[in-house]
Amino acid sequence: MNNLKALKKSVFFISFPFSLIGFLFPVYAHSIGISVIELGVIYSTFSLFTILMRPAVGLLIDNRGRKVGVVLGIVFYCLVNLFLLIGNDFKYLLTARIFQGIGGSFIWISIDTIISDISNENNRSENFGIINESLSKGDFLGAFIGFTIIYNNFFSDSFRIIFFIYLVTSLISLYYAVSKVEETFFYKKSYEEDIINNKSFNLFLFLMGSLTFISSLTSHTYLIYVRENITDQLYLISYLFIPGAILSMFLPNKFGKLSDRYDRRKILCSGILVLGILYLLIPIVKNYYYFIIINTLIAITSMLYGPAQSALVVDIVGDNQRGKSYGKYKLALGIGGMLGSMVGAFVYDQIGNTIVFYIKGIILISFSMLTIKLMDVKTGYDEVENSRESIDGI
């Protein structure tokens, strides 16, 4: 089994709980007596640990290897599922979320770095797309299993059964990570200590952090808006995301190939431009079925530029210090995401629930034009010798 296949397997099994926990964690917490204030503490602590860990993880995997980061990340995810399985109070859920923040920092920075290690310029975005597809497939299957158990009341304590299933799948993921994933630390290793501080990369970090800030303006209020303005039926809300979830299981790979063949800057900026236009339409569309179309187009657009955005890290910084690069990159995304969600929630609550979408759309459109002018990195399809790993037959 080659490294990309091993990563696909590991990512597939570890991603089972992602959607369900993200969607129903507040409901579960409330069901076991967690107060609103305690829930706020849990989310804030998760964000804090996620942000603090990212630079340290980048340094660790550049010095100790990428595989150790993947394994540690999955171990922490296993502990998350274990604590959710056995816990029934505030301290268990707080610990689980802390471990989730630490685990997420380890596994995704390490996986991004491994993909960069085993890829070259003409297949890097495609490989990121392949991993994104595997994540989406596991996420979709895990959510399907979880929601089926909950909605049909198969067990007296449905959440315990679901968390047990997720614990088993995370242990399977750990098996693949330990026994099948290979170390890539020695690939293309040629350090120049000052390359990480180049101005192009620092500008890129600022731009991507700003993009995440803008994208996060509606992250915590989007479902609230849907419930207040489109439908308050939970099953209808869940249907909104099914088309995007299905498409995410096979489109990222194809969009990755597109990014590898053409200029990644243009793919990224075109996607941001289209995304801005779509968000301007959200306050206008009130019909449920039209809203499904807009929501699905938003998901497709995010899939379009996602692989290009991830691949641009190495395009800009070069083949040196990839762990540090992705550590700083994830840190910028984390800070932008945290600040964006806070500002967006304030605007939604204090100014208006539609204004935030207009603001987001206008800023995204302006940002796309600014980014194409400032990001001085041209990428495209070139013949590159000594490809580290082929994706044929996967």
Automatic annotation (TrEMBL):
Bilayer topology annotation: Multi-pass membrane protein
Entry keywords, A to Z: Cell membrane, Membrane, Transmembrane, Transmembrane helix, Transport
Gene3D superfamilies linked: MFS general substrate transporter like domains
GO molecular function: transmembrane transporter activity
Main location: membrane
GO cellular component annotations of the record: plasma membrane
SUPFAM superfamilies the record matches: MFS general substrate transporter (SSF103473)
Keyword Transcription: no
Top-level taxon of the source organism: Bacteria
Matching InterPro entries: MFS, MFS_dom, MFS_trans_sf, MFS_Transporters
Segments traversing the membrane: 12-29, 41-61, 68-86, 138-155, 161-179, 200-222, 234-253, 265-282, 288-308, 329-348, 354-372
Domain Major facilitator superfamily (MFS) profile intervals: 3-379
Localization of this protein: Cell membrane
Protein name per its UniProtKB record: Putative Major facilitator superfamily MFS_1
Lineage: Bacteria, Bacillati, Bacillota, Tissierellia, Tissierellales
